[in-house]
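Lab notebook, bench 4. We co-purified these components, and the gel suggests they stay together. Before we commit to crystallization screens, I want a quick structural picture of the whole thing.
Request: model the full complex, all chains together.
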Amino acid sequence: MIKGSFPIEKFRELQTPFYAYDKELLQKTLDAINAESKKYGYHVHYAVKANANPTILQMICSANLGADCVSGGEVRAAIKAGFPSDKIVFAGVGKADWEIELALDNDIFCFNVESEPELENINDLASQKNKIARVALRINPNVDAHTHSYITTGLNENKFGFSIESLPQVVVLLKKLSNVKLVGLHFHIGSQITDMSAFQDLCIKINELQDFLREKNIRCQHINVGGGLGINYQHPNHVPIADFDSYFKVFNDYLKKEKDQIVHFELGRSVVAPCGSLITKVLYVKKGTSKQFAIVDAGMTDLIRPALYQAYHHIENVTSCGLEEKYDIVGPICESSDTFAKDYTMNAAKRGDLLALRSAGAYGEIMASRYNLRELPKSYFF
Ligand code: LLP
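Here is the predicted assembly.
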């Protein structure tokens, strides 16, 4: 989207705060993903957790991506949006029995399994249904993604996956379980990763692991390298599409595939973050003793990322072209952490101006809550 291309008149008629999604940008992003991934025959699943808005899911499904789900609710949403069950994977460190049963009933492509007791439980539930569950082992590769600690997942200290050291005993266990079939290996080292060397490190770890498994005569049909590709939050107008070209190329350059092995990806943020903005109205401009506050009607209940991860979102005053001034841009929630930005320079704000918090299409609407008994934000497409 190009700065100034928001339909301001239409926005003025709508009750704020709301999410505004740019369909054209989402489509361009999906086209870029398909063009770059097809070069290498890669399969891309969309991480539904980033945004499960039905219109977005349908567009992604129409672009032929698969779905990466982390709950029974997400499996249901993916099926409802039209994702074929053989393109649905189900991950997560704590899958409840009803969620596993739902996935078995729908014959999903694969469970990404994270522990030995989970493997045994899936085996039991599958045997009760006379089914063979396809599983991939989620391996914790102990690779540092150099991103925010809350969204780092691939270190030994994180709760996710099997450690590499535990693999010999997992291999023994797998041989005893007759209702699970090992079809893949799964990895995910973290999110908002912009330094491609982290993915290079991941490839090298995967190569070592494949050497070990080959020695044990174990072959997997697919390698799922997870998601994590970051976007440019600083410059949404100039860099609206993530660098899919470099991203897929790293895997092509460094990952040693076995013959006929298929590489899967599960991208969330890079697919949907750029296409969404949170539109909010300035309620009051308040002069504090040392600060000037722009108090807006959106809060951490609508977009929690700044409060939770100190995340940066580019903010534009889309209805004013006055001189620039500095503000703390804050919401109405009774918490000091309800702050979108501190000492932020933007066009002078007055009551009634509309602000756009950009790059909010991922982990925005989906993480909204009703804290303070607020309404959930609505969403519109333009
Ligand atoms: N696969 C697995 C196993 C994951 O845990 C995640 C994200 C993804 C794929 C998708 O990663 P992505 O391509 O979106 O980076 N709420 C946080 C992000 C949490 C990410 C959780 N896992 C945020 O707002 O930054």
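Residues 47, 50, 68, 91, 151, 153, 188, 191-192, 226-229, 266-270, 305, 309, 363 surround LLP (CB under 6 Å). Worth comparing against the SEC data before the next meeting. The longest strand covers residues 276-287.
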